[in-house]
Amino acid sequence: MRTDRVEGFVIDRGFQVFNTAYPQVKRRIQRRALRLHPFSPAVLVHTGSGRLRFTDPSREPRRAADLLPGRLAGARDLLALGGLSARDALAPAALLKRGTERTTRTALAAAGVSEEFVARFFRPFLSGIFLEDELETSSRFFHLVWRSMIRGTLCLPGDGIGAVPRQLAGVLPPDTVRLDRPVARLTDDGVMTAGGEHLPARTVVVATGAAAAASLLPGLYIPPHREVTTYYHVSTATPLAEPTLLVDVRRRFLHTCVLSEVVPGYAPDGYSLVATSVLGADTPGREDGVRTALAEAYDADTDAWELLTVRTVHDALPAMLPPQPLSRPSRIGTGRYVCGDHRATGSVQGALASGARAAREILRDLGR
């Protein structure tokens, strides 16, 4: 979770959101200090007949008419959605974790959601969360994510998503964190840096992304990962005057959002910052197709938009196909531990929970 500054704009490393309902977030993050700015409790769906709005009526009762049968979904689908949402919101998380393991698509069908509603809403919306568009992700993970979205608020910190790890690091003792000191390999009694410095340690925790973990711990199981690219465009006028995610039923992009409507400080005065994510890598000519799709989705002239920067995240999320363990042990040998979202679930919750599990296992092994 990183944030860059590019020509006065705040650029998160890939599209990011911060969910206030995650248990680990509640336990370990001082949310007030992050100066959180919420997204609106709605999703706009671009269809062949224009944009349709999917609103959480419990948070925006005045927009409840958006969910009238015949607009986004029929009466049966709305009833199925209500039952699914009520169960996930009210059931204990432990019950959802013990639920039947299947794909998300199968779980939606079992809940009574029609193929038409899946194609119009769930597939375009969930593709941006799971970074896959077949809804093959574990149903248990889906139910936990759906629960968190119903119970929490999606936000962005005022200084970018990088404020979250900075806050975590800020409570550590002085000189704990050493930057720009890459580790080349693990030794029998510590680690060796790329600069040739040996750092002795009784216990070593590899708390990195999946690729780095695999290079330091040969033989470590690493699940397949999802790749995502985010294009950041600059406009002199906002194409959408609200902090709302916009998805596309044709799935030409995962989602797009005017980030400067969520957090005005993401762009200098007089400019709007638009972030649009697509599955896979950036390829020649792909941005042109994205720009064309955005012109339709926003009903705006995008020819004059400036492409500020592009961010591709190769291991953005682990693939979470059923059966999907929600957590894996961190201990992989004497004095050797590993943690990260690739050891749990692809989310901030999963990454923090994996780190907490590693800490508990280390303390237990040390007899404390």
UniProtKB/TrEMBL annotation:
<dbReference type="InterPro" id="IPR002937">
    <property type="entry name" value="Amino_oxidase"/>
</dbReference>
<dbReference type="InterPro" id="IPR036188">
    <property type="entry name" value="FAD/NAD-bd_sf"/>
</dbReference>
<dbReference type="Pfam" id="PF01593">
    <property type="entry name" value="Amino_oxidase"/>
</dbReference>
<protein>
    <submittedName>
        <fullName>Oxidoreductase</fullName>
    </submittedName>
</protein>
<feature type="domain" description="Amine oxidase">
    <location>
        <begin position="1"/>
        <end position="363"/>
    </location>
</feature>
